[in-house]
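Tutorial sheet, problem 5. The two components below are modelled jointly, 1114 residues in total.
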Amino acid sequence: MEFVNPFLMLGGLAIAAPIAIFLLSRFRYRTVEWAALEFLLRAIKRQQRRLRLENLILLIIRCLILIAFAVALARPRAVSPIEVSPDKKTQNVVILLDTSYSMGYQVGSDVEETAHERARNTAKEIVSALKDGDRVLIRSFDEVARIEASTIPRNANAAGRTELLQELDDDLFYGARARGTSLSLALQQLPGMLVRFEPNGIKPPSGRKPLAKTVFVLTDAQRQGLLDEEGKLLEPKLSDLAKRELEAELGATLVLIDCGAEQPRNLSVTRLGTREAVVGENLPCHIEARVKNYANEDIGDLTLKYYVDVDEAVDLEGGDAEPQKIVSLTVAAGEEVLAEPLTYQFSTPGLHRVAVHLSSDALTLDNWRHYVVDVRKSVRVLLVDGEPSSQDWEGETDFLYEILNLSVADDVPSLIHTEVCSESELPQKLAEGQAGEAAGDDQNDLDIVILANVPSLTPEDVSQLEDFVRLGRTVIFTMGARVDAKAYNEFMFRDGRGLLPAELMRVVGGTSAAASLDEDAPAWVMNVGDREHPVAGLFTTDDMVTHLRDPSIFGFYEVKLPEGGASSVPLRVNQTVDDNVGAAPPEEQGLPLLVERRFGRRGRVALWLTTVDADWNRIVPYVFNFIFWREYVLHLAQEARPEHNLRVGGQYVSFLRLEEFASKLKVKTPLDEEVALVPEKVEGEEFYRLTYPREHLDVEGGDDAEALNRDGLPDPGFYSVSSTNEKFQTDYFAVTLDPTEGNLAKFSGQELSEALGIKVREIQTADVVNSLTADGGVGGQREYWPEILALVLALLVTESILAAVFGRRRR
Amino acid sequence: MAGEGGRRFLDPKTLTKISRLDIRARLVVEGFVTGLHRSPYHGFSVEFAEHREYVPGDDIKHIDWKVYARSDRYYIKQYEEETNLTATILLDGSESMKYQSDPELPSKLEYGCTVAASLLYLILRQRDAVGLVTFDEEIRKFIPPASSPSHRNLMLNALENVTPTKRTSLGPVLHTMADRVKRKGLVILISDLLDDPEKVISGLRHFRHRRHEVIVFHVMDVAERTFPFNAMTRFEGLEELGHVICDPGALRSAYLEELEQFMGEIQHGCRTDRIDYVPLDTSQPLDVALTSYLATRSGMKLS
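Model answer (structure tokens):
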């Protein structure tokens, strides 16, 4: 409750008047001589108590009349969501419109009636109710803040309103997106919008009151990404911003309008991929899908359909395509399950498109998920043996060679093709590999080079190796007694600019072969340094950690990691042996055993700080070696491949060789639209760069519609890139949603208010319309003076009646 | 004198403009008499009054046989019996009687004097004896009853010289007078009766005990009957009763209840003792008083 003219409340002091009149009347009277005074005295004596009571009642009523009249003059009004600045009749309104894909949830009976449409209509209602002189800014938001149709607050006169209403229909600005939500980001960027309402577009100096502004947040109030389970902000700084900037400095009032369903019930396909890191031609692979139930109840009778190599995305949407497999499943409330996988054997190498569809619910977009499988003929690994030997198991790379060349079955060829050479043969092998890659020959194209206990390389070799990696390949350095640390640091570390991901310092522990046989030698054990690492992370489960702890390490290089955090440490070594092998030591503890970093376009370099034979450790005979090295090589080989599975908002980047060049290529989107792509020559390089969308800026938009192009990949589904040049093989990529956006758990206005520490009002969409109509629009806030005047009248009538009854009315 | 012209003088507003009490009284009586259908004087004569046809039940001794001889019809010869009426008018001249709410209307005393004068004028015209007593807390003037016309001037003079300054003490005065008026007759009390009702009734009962006929003219100001005040008022009590400041509007009903109760007590006492009680207010025409008197007079004759 607040008052339009609070100073008129001083009129309430007029209640002193009846009291004063009453007191004065005791001194102002006329005098009459009276004979029958005795009757009067007796009447007074008899009526004294009643008279006092009557006087009191009348006095109270008269005071109430004056107070009510003063209150009516002060024009009280409800603090409704529709804020009118106290000092001005006009108001400043910001509308934040959630365009994330969860807003596609069907809230009504009609398929078209989504939370997003509801929000858009509510925004229109608000705009329609604005009055001349009011100003408004509208912005859509999802996980990135959108650009606005206008950055200057718009005058909401009749023409302005019409324009705004038309803009709200424009999908370019306010259409639904396939993005996640980040109300947090939208709020962080809110001060930048609000300040534009202030004179000269600057914050009011301290001491001057900011103009009042109402911020309508039209959203489905998704909790995830904003609040944790205890209702605390995931971005704690937001509270300071809200209190200091939004409320105190910029005078903003937040109004939350939940446009989503009351109790949303949603399932998402959260992941689709292959169990195998690399899928080989004619090798069985497992296509796995995960389904999460975000609802508060178990949901059964679900069907999940697997589709493989369906040509057109429209076939999927239209439902014409034949599924490869149909799985039925039940998902418990809040659970995520791995659906029964599709076992499939791809008969041709190259890119294959896999999709799954979950039986529909009210939010359809996340029931689909798409994946492009890169089927390989083989993964080629070159082992450069720095300590070759003609005797079995004496060479540096003998163990590795055997491990990598293992076949899963006798009749199935190994996916990894391994070749051993000496360091002197390296340049030639690299040249062959590059030629193979240039020819698009998967079989001769080298994926990974492993330098095992190689003493040193010539600067020329290093340069050639750098080129090899830069193009998107991998080099693994392994250590040993022959390694010349000084030369490595000089030519390959190069103060962090070279291939080596860390600077070699000294050898820790025994370096002789005997050391590994010495029972009393100090042993080190491995532990996981990065649980998120796809391969190191495999050794975090109870049974796998045993494999990790079985081997002992007696010697390794201590390194110094370059500053800046470019290198990661997937594995570490610890000196103390924990009896409880299941309990992994803290990840930060221990010295690095495996260091990784990116190099060049997609290339990677890894540094394994002990030997790959049994010289410095007792790894070789253990299961660990078999699992780790195969998975690690496959993982690195796949990592170096062009990415074909992207996120909404991401960017497709690929490189064309000179012979693949065409002046124009085209992208076909999941919506069956064709967009032309122009390759750009990369300066100083022998290839062209292809990007889609061309400009990509995953931050706040600029000032014009052009910035929308920086929005990244807009829609989920399969995209294809084709060229008129026959040498260019059609490229495919899949774009997927952020699966967490499917979590529609809500927060309330009160929770938001408590988390931000500022007042947040919450109203329903229906109430917005009602309150707007009842208030006569945003400008006319709900005022109570008519009711109070009616009360005054009622009191006056009561007073008259009582005064007459009590005999106080003059005739 | 035309009827209306005569009645005009019965209106207190008109009478107050006439300063001389004797003229006032005469006008009242003449006007009053003119308005009557039958002369009131008949009843006070022993002379033959009229004939009327005999009706069964009449005393045959009143048949006028001479008329019967002439006309062969029975006529009753009516005689108006003369009684030696002695009336005593007691006029309250206490301070409370001087109250006058409206300058156009007479004060209670003026009204009372006019009533007294009119009555004595009427009585003397009938050649009955009338006396006058003025009193407040004690008897101020006592003019014994007499029927001579000169006596009238004496009484009128006394009436004009009443000075209301003292308190009322009605009870003792009535008792005193009851002892002093020996001859059985008519006692007329004109007063606002502002005294203890019991004492008043007790005094009046004393008269009745002496076999007097009693008429009480209870004179009140019209304001005392209606209590028309609204604004905050300081009421200065006459007869040394102090003062009170109050909102009269709030007290009107309570006051009127008190008044009703008082008048009710008086009325009840009078009825019990067969005393004629005539409430008058100063706005009422004076014929009310005279009519009451005549009714009582008539009743005395019949009894």
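Marking note: Chain A has five domains: 2-29+36-78+786-805, 92-263+752-769, 273-375, 378-639, 645-739. Full credit if you identified this.
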